């Protein structure tokens, strides 16, 4: 609930930035930017799954090719009360996974060959549950809306930049509208602000998917351990197919080994914090009677 509220608040802030920038430039600019951003992102919403799967060379596998993986996806989809998604495998040594699809009826779960080799059945089950949580929570829709608003802000900021470049010092004192200096500041600040809010929404949705996934699997500890293994894998096994444009889709950042960046500019929350929250859930899981699978047994160290 906390991260759901955070998403709503951040979406409100992002919308306020859009309205504020549009109001500064004029209603005509606001409408044009909104239409352009909406058209661009609606296309991405409907066709992003095909594009992403193609970019990463993912191939669909049937139950006869990956029976254990299909049984796991089928069981967890029933737990999540969503249609069973299609299952894809990427020939990539880096252990990772992502989900896509514009709604639960068009869901896709994709895993790398690397993740199949590094995680045990219980940990993989936790990862699959996390990805199904993204589908259940309609995170593709949420991210598309956020991207649409952020894109509109960027379009408007670019318009402000043109105003700054071509208006020069011609604006008379007292004339309505932005001064060149104000337009330049707007062009610089607005896209950064929109991006920071959009990234905050992405991190909030990851926390939500962790929690929902742990509830679907009934096994928060499994996902916590999987995340720790996947982070190590991302640091030591570069992905040949990783793309910055799709990094936010994956359960862990595929560029984790490329160097540290400010968490404020990250699409993913820090793995230690994600694991800490999951283990806090694990304490409560036993009281709630979770553990609807033979995998969900206490780890013995």
TrEMBL record:
As recorded in UniProt, its EC number(s) are 3.4.24.-
Q: Specify whether Manganese is a keyword of the entry.
A: no
Give the keywords, sorted: Cell membrane, Hydrolase, Membrane, Metal-binding, Metalloprotease, Protease, Transmembrane, Transmembrane helix, Zinc
Molecular-function annotations in GO: metallopeptidase activity
Q: Which residues cross the membrane?
A: 7-23, 29-47, 140-163, 183-201
Catalytic residues, per the record, are 131
- Which cofactors does this gene product need? Zn(2+)
So which domain of life are we looking at? Answer: Bacteria
- List each copy of the Peptidase M48 domain by range: 63-281
Query: What InterPro entries does this protein's entry cite?
Result: HtpX_protease, Pept_M48_protease_HtpX, Peptidase_M48
Q: How does it sit in the membrane?
A: Multi-pass membrane protein
Q: Which residues bind Zn(2+)?
A: 130, 134, 206
Gene3D superfamilies named among the record's database cross-references: Metalloproteases ('zincins'), catalytic domain
**Keyword hit for DNA-binding:** no
Q: Which residues form a coiled coil?
A: none
Task: Kindly state what the record says about how the cofactor is bound.
Answer: Binds 1 zinc ion per subunit.
Q: Where in the cell is it found?
A: Cell membrane
Q: Which PANTHER family match?
A: PROTEASE HTPX
Similarity-based family: Belongs to the peptidase M48B family.
Q: What is this protein called?
A: Protease HtpX homolog
What organism is the protein native to? Hyalangium rubrum
Instruction: Report the gene name.
Output: htpX
């Amino acid at each position: 609930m906390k991260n759901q509220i955070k998403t709503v608040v951040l979406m409100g802030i992002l919308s306020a930035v859009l309205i504020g920038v549009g109001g500064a430039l004029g209603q005509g600019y606001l409408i044009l930017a909104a239409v352009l951003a909406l058209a661009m992102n609606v296309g991405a919403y409907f066709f992003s799954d095909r594009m992403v799967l193609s970019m990463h060379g993912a191939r669909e596998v049937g139950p006869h090719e990956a029976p254990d993986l299909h049984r796991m996806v089928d069981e967890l989809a029933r737990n999540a009360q969503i249609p069973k998604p299609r299952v894809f495998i990427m020939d990539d040594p880096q252990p990772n996974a992502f989900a896509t699809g514009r709604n639960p009826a068009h869901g896709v779960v994709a895993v790398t060959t690397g993740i199949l080799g590094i995680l045990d059945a219980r940990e993989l089950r936790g990862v699959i549950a996390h990805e199904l949580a993204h589908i259940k929570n309609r995170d593709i829709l949420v991210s598309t809306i956020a991207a649409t608003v952020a894109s509109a802000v960027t379009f408007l900021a670019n318009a402000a930049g043109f105003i700054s470049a071509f208006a020069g010092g011609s604006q008379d004192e007292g004339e309505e509208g932005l001064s060149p200096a104000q337009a330049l500041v707007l062009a610089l600040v607005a896209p950064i602000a929109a991006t920071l809010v959009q990234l905050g929404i992405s991190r909030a949705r990851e926390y939500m998917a962790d929690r929902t996934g742990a509830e679907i699997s009934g096994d928060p500890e499994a996902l916590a351990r999987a995340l720790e293994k996947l982070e190590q894998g991302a640091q030591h096994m570069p992905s040949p197919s990783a793309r910055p444009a799709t990094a936010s889709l994956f359960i862990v950042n595929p560029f984790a080994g490329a160097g540290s960046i400010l968490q404020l500019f990250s699409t993913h929350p820090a793995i230690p914090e994600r694991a800490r929250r999951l283990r806090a859930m694990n304490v409560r899981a036993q009281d709630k009677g979770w553990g609807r699978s033979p995998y969900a047994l206490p780890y013995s160290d």
